Amino acid sequence: MESALTARDRVGVQDFVLLENFTSEAAFIENLRKRFKENLIYTYIGSVLVSVNPYKDLEIYTKNHMERYRGVNFYEVSPHIYAVADNSYRSMRTERKDQCILISGESGAGKTEASKKILQYYAFTCPASEQVQTIKDRLLQSNPVLEAFGNAKTLRNDNSSRFGKYMDIQFDFKGAPVGGHIINYLLEKSRVVHQNHGERNFHIFYQLIEGGEEDLLRALGLERNPQQYQYLVKGNCPKVSSINDRSDWKMVRKALTVIGFNEDEAFPVCVMSGLVQCNYIVTCLTVAAELRVTLLLSVFACLYLVSLLTVCVCVFVFVCLHQLMSPLNLEQASSARDALSKAVYGRTFTWLVNKINASLTYTDDSHKNYSVIGLLDIYGFEVFQHNSFEQFCINYCNEKLQQLFIELTLKSEQEEYEAEGITVRHHFLLSLSEKFKGIISILDEECLRPGDASDLTFLEKLEDTVGGHAHFVTHKLADAKTRKVMGRDEFRLLHYAGEVNYNVNGVSSFPILFPSSLHPFLTSFSLFSVCLCLPLQAATQFKASLAKLMEILMSKEPSYIRCIKPNDSKQAGRFDEVLIRHQVKYLGLMENLRVRRAGFAYRRRYEVFLQRYKSLCPDTWPNWQGKLADGVATLVKHLGYKPEEYKLGRSKIFIRFPKTLFATEEALETRKHSLGETTKLQAGWRGYSQKFIKGFIYRHRERCPENEYFLDYVRYSFLMKLHRNLPKNVLDKSWPTPPAALAEASEHLRKLCMQNMVWSYCKKISPEWKHQMEQKMIASELFKDKKDNYPQSVPKLFVSTRLSISVSSLSDGLFVLHVSSDDNKQKGDVVLQSDHVIETLTKIAICSDKINSININQGSITFTVGQGKEGIIDFTPGSELLVAKAKNGHLSVVSLLNLPHSQSDGFSKLKAEM
Q1: Could you tell me which residue ranges the TH1 domain spans (predicted)?
Q2: What is the DSSP string of 132-189?
Q3: Catalytic residue check, 640
Q4: Does 231 score more than 60 pLDDT?
């Protein structure tokens, strides 16, 4: 999160504790406004998430965003509801402590959507098996059902939750969701019979009328026109442009199937059908003829509500064990009808929640211990033109939750400071908002006292008991100015969120007797007793259930999401500063900020702080080898922190002033410019090494994205090595060993290389050298592997002067083979005699291509007889052939003067060729 501090001038700070002027409400709202204009709807106050409803779809809830926040430290990424959800999940897994996420805000602030986003995040990121996937689907599909039966269109919100919901999501030891449990609080049952102008009844009624199949509507006796039913048009708003009842009905039917409802358990639909007709039927029962009554009851009998409708028009009195039935007038019957409708709908909703809970029950007995994350989606503070007893309960609940929020926040702060060994004094804290402990108990007493209880007697009792309280006023106790805006049947309470006028009409009602001959579905409601003073029962039960809820929340580790509504017109991009200032005030956000800033604005674990800012100190860069606390102390000393600006705890550093952190961030930004290239190199090297290592692991597989880089590198490396180590000549047989993938290609390259070297060699060879090679080839054919000294002769060149032949011009048969003394130092030339000297020398000349090496001498031939010694053969003509040694040591050869004709011709031809 610190990485976004540099953009704070444009989009504000991501954490309100970093506001320099943290005591200014105007600075707080301005920071909200900056971020809202940039579609940054989430901001932190420490660990508390503030969410502003954008009233439009934002591309921040995709699967990629879910992956971005999965398993990441809370402060390492920008504020998001996924960060809160993931932090709670990781805390549950690591600390093995149950968690809860408290979502609060006024109607229309986005609480229900926030809870759905959290459920979607867990459904996507948590591990899942086939059984777990079923639970995930049921958890997600419980929302459409509960919204249909528990949500309605109000002036402030087209999809306002008219009940409080606490949902426990149960996780096994693997962290997979395996079950759930839902507790509902204070369903606004009065909406069934009354809606303010511009509001609607619960969604399910309109979905049934608009989207129900023709056969279903015909079986239920309904028409596809909500205007026909008085319960659905009291708010004069049967249709809403932002709601598609037809498609919502299909979604509800699908959700009921996923949750596990069968056709026999679809009775709540029949109940809804009965309720929408109930107003018209009871009116007819009281004024119409008996025949009309019978016909109407026959239509309605299929709904098993005939016995219930009977008590709406009659009261049963037992006299001397005899039951007498006394008819009610229209006003009394209407009141009984409305009470019956509210009671049946309320019990239907409770039955529905119980069925959903049964489908979410964790049934694996082998692992009975599971961890829990609770989601509390409770109605926000409400102020209407007409505020009934239900609004009083809703606002009373918000008072309790606000008190709990402040207490737990302060407690969490103090515990963290104590755990780190830091002492902090919260001088600014004022007393918390007052709670009215007497109103519900006074209502109990008034309803139970002898005689007829009425609304006005309850109001009088309040005036007598709590009339002197500073936060309570009635028309009778008010000044003249206040009386102008208060009715005589109202009282006013000063809540933490402002003043609210409550109307006492309806705090008492007629007794209703429910007979026992009912459908089993209705029998399960346990309505078969005399229920005096229904508000008493509701208030007492609500008070007890609220106390139980507080116990549940106190037993868990809480996280908070505070939702803000930007405007009353539900327009995207509109920021109503007056409305938002009011919500900031009654949500206690400024108080929460002051609690957080009473001590230190910024806190981080040593390893996180050191990892981020270590480059600012030469002693800690690039790595600190000692203790983390010592490293942080060295770093802050180098940065020049003053003692009053920070404290070092046992595992965290606490920085008191945001300007200290901002200065550190600016120094880091400056440092980043010099480290930018290094960082790029590091990132490139890391990426390269990781790809290389993975490619090495996959090197024996077919080419794929995982190994293609490694294979390309291996090919490139082999080719470069081959380039540096090519054979130097045609006799060099060396060749680099190729990788397996290039074995075939390597062999082709080797052959091409050899062919190229041979071609180049042959192109450069001279005629003399070519002649040498031809002689060497003949010698190879003759002597290779046949004569032992052949290998030694291969590198030696054939010299044309090495061997020559001398012969006389006379007719003798002698000839001399002259052998170079360099080649044979111990022997001289060879003197031979042949009767066919001409033929012999000719063949020798032809075979050795040495025609020019035959010398025909006149008179004498000199030859070598040893090292440094020469001999001479003297030739003289004579009549007789004679060879002898003369006195001068020469060899004397007497040859015939005239050669035979054939011999003479041969020598002539030989000379001619020479």
Answers
A1: 715-897
A2: HHHHHHHHHHHHHHHHHHHEE--SS-TTEE-SEEEEEEEE-TTS-EEEEEEEEE---G
A3: no
A4: yes
